[in-house]
Amino acid sequence: MYSKCQFGIALTTAIYLFLLLCIYLMGMLAISNIIHISDDSTWKGIITSLNEYSSVMNSIFIGGIGGSVYCLRAIYLNFSVFKKWDNDYLIWYLIRPILSLVIGGISYLFVKAGLVLFSSSEQYELNQLSLLSLSFLCGLNIDKFMKKLESIGEMVWGISPSNMGKTEGTKSE
């Protein structure tokens, strides 16, 4: 089966990802709780700033949660189901959730810039939930999101996709 070293690395990686999930969730809770502190506190300026940026910070954290969930699922599948654990992917397991944080923030940027639209509704809650859902999905599936970004860039600004965005079997210019 697996050596003790491989088992230890897989277990350590899973613990790392689980801890990242906990940190991301605690970060979201901390942001929402800090924002609701009374206005007469000495931290009013910081709280006001956090309130202004709470949506983007929540999008970043939700993107990280999506990436961590994806990695935990990959560990489960590769280690337990398919029995194909490979230590060469360790860097991927460590970096992917951090990259998902960045992608969660970028998804927020594209929605706020009007490059990704959900509906014409003006309801804040619907838009906020849609934004967080998109951030989760972008963190969960970075590759598809990057291809979508490249297609938006090509459509809006005429920027041709990178090699990552091109499908197999097509000629590159």
Automatic annotation (TrEMBL):
Membrane-spanning residues: 7-35, 55-77, 89-111
Keywords recorded for this protein, A-Z: Membrane, Transmembrane, Transmembrane helix
Protein name per UniProt: Uncharacterized protein
